[in-house]
Design goal:
By secondary structure, the chain is mainly β. It has a domain at 5-59. It contains no helices and 6 strands. The chain has strands spanning 5-11, 15-22, 27-33, 38-43, 48-53, 58-61. A 6-stranded antiparallel sheet has the order 1-2-3-4-5-6, with no helix packed on it. It is rod-shaped.
């Protein structure tokens, strides 16, 4: 290993400077204590990393930052921000929980995708899904249920299928204030009592 050049400077005005120079590796390590901040710098041929510690803050600037520990706890008494100017990944090999004592807002300017073996969304009060076009599809069976079920279209409503069945346990009412049509190549009207007309 090549010899290093080590220097310590003490100055009553600028503080203490510790410098280690590796000419062979083209790396210079510097620590400056100026009475206000402690600045540690590692400067290579292409990249430089810096740690600046003041009485109220610690700033780390580097090309790659790696933190490896058995348990990590990050806590702030005020706002926290995690921001990436490119891709941002959150991964867990086991369960992942996101909890808020207030609101949670998720927004995407592009597409928003959510997938899983089973997805459950529930609300203690009101749940709402809206969009220019909404589609709910199932490869096998789709169900909608409620104490009261209302389906409405402001201009037109359609219910289609190879077989369509409308059934009520007590009564069924089909009405229109204007015109109502019941059509079919074969039309059957059956009942113990059949009444047609007012």
């Amino acid at each position: 290993m090549a010899k290093l050049v080590c220097r310590i400077e003490l100055n009553k005005e600028s503080g203490i400077t510790v410098k280690v120079v590796n000419d062979a590796g083209k790396i210079t390590q510097t620590m400056v204590l100026d009475g206000t901040a402690i600045t540690t710098t590692c400067q290579g041929e292409q990249d430089t990393s810096t740690i600046t510690q003041k009485s109220d803050s610690i700033a780390i600037k580097c090309k790659t930052f790696t933190l490896d520990a058995e348990t990590i706890t990050c806590k702030s008494s005020k706002d926290s921000l995690h921001e990436s100017q490119q891709k941002f990944d959150i991964k867990s090999t086991q369960d992942t929980t996101v909890t808020s004592s207030a609101k949670i807002t998720e927004t995407a300017t592009g597409d928003f995708a959510m997938s899983g073996n089973n997805i459950t969304a529930s609300a203690t009060q009101k749940a709402k899904i809206s969009g220019m076009n909404c589609e709910i599809a199932a490869t096998q069976e789709a169900k909608m249920s409620g104490l009261q079920l209302k389906l409405a279209g402001t201009t037109q409503s359609e219910l289609t299928g190879l077989t369509v069945k409308v059934e009520g346990t007590t009564s069924v009412k089909v009405a229109s204030p204007l015109a109502a049509s019941l059509e079919g190549s074969i039309t059957n009207v059956k009942g113990t009592m059949v009444k047609i007309g007012p």
